[in-house]
C-alpha cells in the first residue's frame, strides 16, 4: 500500500487550484493575473506531490529540454503579461513533455470505456502516437 504524506495531500489541492485558475483565466479571455497565479500554483503543487528532486529530474531530462524550455518560457511570458503568447508556448511545451504519456492514457481509456465509438477512437489514438 502506498502511503501519502500530508505534503502530497496539500500538493494535490494546490495543483487542483492551479488548474482551476488556469481554466478560469482562459475563460476570462486570457486574464494574465489569473493565468500567472494558476501557473505558479500548478508548479508548486506538482513539486509538493512528486518532490523537488523528481520534479527537477522530470523537467530537465536531456530529451525533454525542448518541451521544458517552451513550457517554462511560456510561464515566464505569462508572468510578463503576454498571456496569449505564453499560453501557446505552454501548450506546445506541455504536449512535447507528455507525448510519451498520451498513448498510455488513450490505451487505458480505450480499455475502460465501454461506449463502442469512444473505445474504438481511443484505441486508434493509442496506436498512432509514438512512445519515443
Spans of at least 5 consecutive residues whose pLDDT stays below 50 are none
Which structural class do the helices and strands define? mainly alpha
On the 0 to 100 scale, the average pLDDT is: 89
Strand content: under 5%
Alpha plus pi helix count: 7
Distance between the termini: 31 Å
**What's the shape?**
globular
**Radius of gyration, in angstroms, nearest whole number:** 17 Å
The profile of the biggest β sheet is:
none
In short:
Belongs to the GOT1 family. The protein is an all-alpha fold.
Task: Tell me what the structure shows.
The chain is an all-alpha fold and 132 residues long. It has one domain (6-99). Helices cover 78% and strands 0% of the residues. The chain has seven helices and no strands. The chain has helices at residues 6-27, 32-50, 52-59, 65-79, 83-97, 102-112, 116-128. The longest helix has 22 residues, at 6-27. The model has no long low-confidence stretch (mean pLDDT 89).
Amino acid at each position: 500500500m502506498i502511503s501519502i504524506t500530508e505534503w502530497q495531500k496539500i500538493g494535490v489541492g494546490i495543483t487542483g487550484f492551479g488548474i482551476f485558475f488556469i481554466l478560469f483565466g482562459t475563460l476570462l479571455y486570457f486574464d494574465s493575473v489569473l493565468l500567472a497565479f494558476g501557473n505558479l500554483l500548478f508548479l508548486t503543487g506538482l513539486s509538493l506531490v512528486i518532490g523537488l528532486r523528481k520534479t527537477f529530474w522530470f523537467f530537465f531530462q536531456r530529451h525533454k529540454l525542448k518541451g521544458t524550455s517552451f513550457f517554462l518560457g511560456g510561464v515566464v511570458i505569462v508572468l510578463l503579461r503576454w498571456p496569449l503568447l505564453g499560453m501557446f508556448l505552454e501548450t506546445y511545451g506541455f504536449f512535447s513533455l507528455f507525448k510519451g504519456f498520451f498513448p498510455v492514457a488513450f490505451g487505458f481509456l480505450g480499455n475502460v470505456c465501454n461506449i463502442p465509438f469512444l473505445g474504438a477512437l481511443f484505441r486508434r489514438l493509442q496506436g498512432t502516437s509514438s512512445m519515443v
